[in-house]
Amino acid sequence: xxxxxxxxxDYIAAHRGGRQADPREWLGRVQGRDRAALEGLIDxxxxxxxxxxxxxVAFRESGLGPFAEQVTTALHGRSGAWPALLPxxRDRAALxxxxxxxxxxxxxxxxxxxxxxxFYYHEMEQGLLPSEGVDDKVLTALGSILGQSAxxxxxxxxxxxxxxxxxAGGPAAVFARQxxxxxxxxxxxxxxxxxxxxxxxxxxxxPDEIDRLFRGG
Length: 217
Prior knowledge:
mainly alpha
């Protein structure tokens, strides 16, 4: 019969040694009462074990920095999960942002308005565009490019936290404006500056169809 305490000691040594100590690996070695006992012992150890020291170098090298930034933007922005989801879908489709914008403008029958379409798409990825105002036509076109349904994109665009992004000029919006803009989009403010409101055309101009598709009204 397997010695539960010996397995626990082996797990603790692996965990403290910095290895990727997945409890399932150790639990898979026992069954029945021994498994239940080992699971309880590991849970107790993890509840009391000191947290590992934060290693900023290891975090940068892990490649998780941009994703963590996208998730933070999604949580506090006005576009739900779009800041985290849309870049992932673009990567999966092997599309640069400029390529996606070109195709999206074409699908919206506005190939001559790529700059404006690009502006609004940038705001979707930065959590600055209220998702409620984005027309189903946009989501259908975008979904066809990224391999998602319009309904799935609509659901993802709903706010993740109550009251998130209500104040367009609040700290969350400023964070989103400064969050590692993609150089493929030309009209992006440099860090430390405040992005203009989403009016890519002359402020005196009447809203056109692209404005209505992305902002409603």
